[in-house]
Amino acid sequence: MSEMPVSASGAASAAGGEPLLKVRDLVKHFPIHGGLLRREVARVHAVDGVSFDLQHVARQRDMQIIFQDPYASLNPRMTVGSIIGEALTIHKLAPTKEAYTARIVELLETVGLNADHMRRYPHEFSGGQRQRIGIARALAVSPKLVVCDEAVSALDVSIQAQVINLLADLQERLSLTLIFIAHDLSVVRQVSTRAAVMYLGRIVEIATRDELYRRPLHPYTQALLAAVPV
Questions:
Q1: CA separation (Å) from 2 to 49, 57, 61?
Q2: Helix (H, G, I), strand (E, B), or coil: what is residue 27?
Q3: What is the C-alpha to C-alpha distance for residues 127 and 115, in angstroms, rounded to an integer?
Q4: How far, in Å, CA of 168 to CA of 198, rounded?
Q5: What is the pLDDT of residues 60-98, one digit of tens each?
Q6: Separation CA 60–CA 230 (nearest Å)
Q7: Which of the chain's termini has less CB crowding within 10 Å, N or C?
Q8: What is the DSSP letter of 111?
Q9: Is the four-CA dihedral 119, 106, 164, 51 of positive or negative sign?
Q10: Is-contact 65 149, C-beta < 8 A?
Q11: SS3 content of the chain, % helix, strand, coil (to 5)
Q12: Contacts of 121 (CB under 8 A, 6+ apart)
């Protein structure tokens, strides 16, 4: 893991009351081993004393995640319908078989896929389609908060744009709050309302999207913005 900008966006983050998520002095270091005996020779400080709040939602199931790799995050032995419907079964959200099937079809259509895709397996889909399946899975329990962990970095640029547009549309339609983790600030700009920039495991700058892009203060933020292709 390396340093990355992190953004939080959506209607819920602006709400008052007790925060949905409180992070205080979060630390995550990864050991580096070397030499014949593979001893620890250094540590990567991926997260080093990070604190932030994200405003209000309530239940566990209200928090879901979209993973970085659409090829590794879907069980190859399960049909698409089973992958999306698993959470419906766990949380008892579909009282009948008909309701279960109808909800899966609704979720597939929400992310731009077809009803007949529910009977197919992940290997039959492209990377962009697989990520749409991952998004449908995350939406199955009607969450308030979705963590997008480098959700477009493994996709081709043209497919990235489609998935970003889909996430932005879902964010507005479903009043979703997104924590969008990415290295590419041009991607962050399209979906975020507030952004935190991390350097050497620490948050070095937090600002609204417009403030960050108009007047970056930290040298690392300035370097990131300078690296964005025009």
A1: 15, 29, 29
A2: strand
A3: 18
A4: 23
A5: 778 899 999 989 999 999 999 999 999 999 999 999 999
A6: 40
A7: C
A8: T
A9: negative
A10: yes
A11: 40, 25, 35
A12: 76, 77, 78, 79, 80
Helix (H) or strand (E) holding 205: strand 202-208
pLDDT means over runs of 10, the chain (230 residues): 44 53 86 88 87 67 89 94 96 94 97 95 95 96 91 86 91 88 84 88 91 92 84
Q: Are 116 and 33 in contact (CB under 8 A)?
A: no
Q: What does the angle CA 158 – CA 159 – CA 165 come to, to the nearest 5 degrees?
A: 100
Residue 25 CA, chain-centre distance (Å), reads 21
Q: Which amino acid is at 19?
A: P
Amino acid at 41: V
Q: Which of 40, 63, 61 is CA-nearest to residue 149?
A: 63
Q: Give per-residue burial for 46-58: e unless 16+ CB within 10 Å, then b.
A: bbbebebebbbbe
Best CA proximity match to 66, nearest among 191, 203, 196: 191
Cα 153 versus chain centre, distance: 11
Q: Which amino acid is at 12?
A: A
Cβ 83 vs Cβ 133: under 8 Å: yes
Per-residue pLDDT, 53 = 78
Distance separating alpha carbons of residues 61 and 87, to the nearest angstrom: 9
Label residue 127 exposed, middle or buried (CB < 10 Å: 0-12, 13-18, 19+): middle
Tokens for 191, please give them: 């979906």
